[in-house]
Amino acid sequence: MTSPITLIATATFGLEMLIKQEVKALGFADVQATDAQVAFGATWEDVPRANLWLRCADRLLLLMGTFTAVSFDELFERTKAIPWETVIAADGRFTVNAKTVKSTLQSARSCQAIVKKAVAERLKASYGVTWLSETGAEFTIQVSLLKDVAQLMLDTSGVGLHKRGYRAEAGEAPLKETLAAALVQLSFWRKDRLLIDPMCGSGTILIEAAMIGRNIAPGLRRRFAAEGWPTIAPAAWQRARQEAAAAQDHNGRLQLFGYDIDSDAIAIACGNAQKAGVGTDIQFAQKDVKELWLDQQYGILITNPPYGQRLSHFQEMNNIYIALNKMLRKKRGWSVYVLTADKKFPDYFKRAHPDRVRKLYNGRVEVNYYQYHGEKPEADKTVESVARAVV
Ligand SMILES: C[S@@+](CC[C@H](N)C(=O)[O-])C[C@H]1O[C@@H](n2cnc3c(N)ncnc32)[C@H](O)[C@@H]1O
Questions:
Q1: Is 171's C-beta closer than 6 angstroms to any atom of ligand 1?
Q2: Residue 294: CB within 6 Å of ligand 1?
Q3: Which of 103-107, 238-242, 244-248, 361-365 shows the lowest mean pLDDT across its residues?
Q4: Which of 138-152, 276-290, 310-324 has the lowest mean pLDDT?
Q5: Taking all residues of the chain, what is their mean pLDDT, rounded to a whole number?
Q6: Residue of 172, 313, 318, 342 to test ligand 1 pocket, by largest number of atoms within 8 Å of CB
Q7: Residue 112 Cα, ligand 1 centroid: separation in angstroms?
Q8: Domain residues of the chain, as ranges?
Q9: How would you write the chain as a 3-class SS string?
Q10: Which of 144, 181, 347, 370 could form a disulfide with 354 if both were Cys (CB 3.0 to 4.6 A apart)?
């Protein structure tokens, strides 16, 4: 990559291609997706913008160096050869997090200590000091050793990008905001379409949909680690925030509906939506999914039903699946998306076989995202056939 810097958006397994699309949509051309990472060439000015706008990535890292290391000496010398002083200020506070997988250097703790020492030596020599105060801005170095290849990166985000700043209260088993945004992006939902989550819990899926619909930058309400870095002018952060604030689109009505059997969850969802600036865009109500009825012929349903191991849970889940089945069996115009760890879900939901099953991770739990495509509305079909005729 010939750009001044290389940024890496870290991805939950299974979301790499989606994040690659997000990065491209932000205007970056040189984008490469590998396992759990999307790398792209950028400028320093892009750091605020990418942090503010990435919806599905976990973090945004700055790549400082990649090299092979099979001994601690090698790790030390190669780390010391990286020009850390071009990013880390003389008073920078820096910590090191390391992980090592299938590598000769197996101890993450030792790698951490070696890298810390090498960076400190480099900075002391560069700044001509014998002692580093470490009282200034925060710099977290991520060291990742995979099959003896070390990647050294600086974390520009700080706390993970899922922390948008709207979730004061979590509710029961909430989804990470980044995963919820991905579920919406992977669906057929567009801002002019009806969307319901019949088991919405703290409302994460609907809040993320509303933020997408209103073009609200997910990071607009939070701060980032790189805000104190000398390489990025405060004006760049200000400009990115101003542009993001101006990009919001509050025209038109969104059709977003959330239900949950638990009235406390509904209260939490309302509060979170309010904080996210989409309080008037979503209608929440307490309702048991077994009592829910859909009037409309076309719509999108995205949900993340409860999942548990106890017998009482199994029985309750069966009842929920039967209710979903009954509700949607004759609604061929509805696209249905269900995220669950329960591999038996498709046996119960009999409308059709899933059109797609994606393996994802909800935290550390392996889950499947079952996708059932609905039939298109007549108007869309007409547009499509006209488009085909023109082609
Ligand atoms: C895994 S949580 C959903 C979490 C949600 N996606 C979030 O991010 O907060 C499942 C939710 O289903 C709700 N629930 C359980 N049984 C239900 C039923 N019969 N009808 C409606 N909601 C139900 C629970 O109260 C819980 O909030």
A1: yes
A2: no
A3: 361-365
A4: 310-324
A5: 93
A6: 172
A7: 41
A8: 5-155, 177-217+226-246+253-382
A9: CCCCEEEEEECCCCCHHHHHHHHHHCCCCCEEEECCEEEEEECCCHHHHHHHHCCCCCEEEEEEEEEECCCHHHHHHHHHCCCHHHCCCCCCEEEEEEEEECCCCCCHHHHHHHHHHHHHHHHHHHHCCCCCCCCCCEEEEEEEEECCEEEEEEECCCCCCCCCCCCCCCCCCCCCHHHHHHHHHCCCCCCCCCEEECCCCCCHHHHHHHHHHCCCCCCCCCCCHHHHCCCCCHHHHHHHHHHHHHHCCCCCCCCEEEEECCHHHHHHHHHHHHHCCCCCCEEEEECCHHHCCCCCCEEEEEECCCCCCCHHHHHHHHHHHHHHHHHHCCCCEEEEEEEECCCCHHHHCCCCCCCEEEEEEECCEEEEEEEECCCCCHHHHHHHHHHHHHC
A10: 370
**CA-nearest residue, atom 10 of ligand 1:** 306
Ligand 1 centroid, distance to 201 Cα (angstroms): 5
Probe target for ligand 1 pocket from 164, 175, 199, with the most ligand atoms within 8 Å of CB? 199
Name the CATH topology of 5-155. VC0802-like (3.30.2130)
Could you tell me the distance, in angstroms and rounded to a whole number, from the CA of residue 258 to the centre of ligand 1? Answer: 10
Query: Does the Cβ of 322 fall within 6 Å of ligand 1?
Result: no
For ligand 1, the distance from its centroid to the CA atom of residue 358, given in whole angstroms, is: 21
pLDDT at position 313: 78
CATH architecture assignment, domain 177-217+226-246+253-382? 3-Layer(aba) Sandwich (3.40)
